[in-house]
Amino acid sequence: MVGNTIRLSLERHHEEMEVLNLIGATQAFIRRPFLYRGMLYGTFGGMIALLVTYCVVHALTSPTEQLLSLYQGIFTLENLTFYDTVAFLVASILLGWLGAVFAFVQQRRALNEY
Predict the structure, then answer these.
(1) How far is CA 62 from CA 65, 74, 80, in A?
(2) Which of 33, 61, 76, 99 has its CB surrounded by the most CB atoms within 10 Å?
């Protein structure tokens, strides 16, 4: 999703990138805002995924305990630890960044072919 969103953003800013190329901007200078945007999308996606996970665990805790009391089982639903949460957010940021990199490279190759 991040790759497609960045690709659409690249198409929307195509004329601006052409002007930047004409005045001598480097590819890194042109690419940087899109990479930041990909990281931002990854961060928001990770936070939404964590929020959904915490809500599902909270909603299922009581029914799970009731079911386990009927069968005298030992099982508990636990939320992610702090380190797992941080690792999940870092992974989602990295995936957003990678999606933006791949989308940028693919879009630039497609534009250079024409």
Answers:
(1) 5, 14, 18
(2) 99
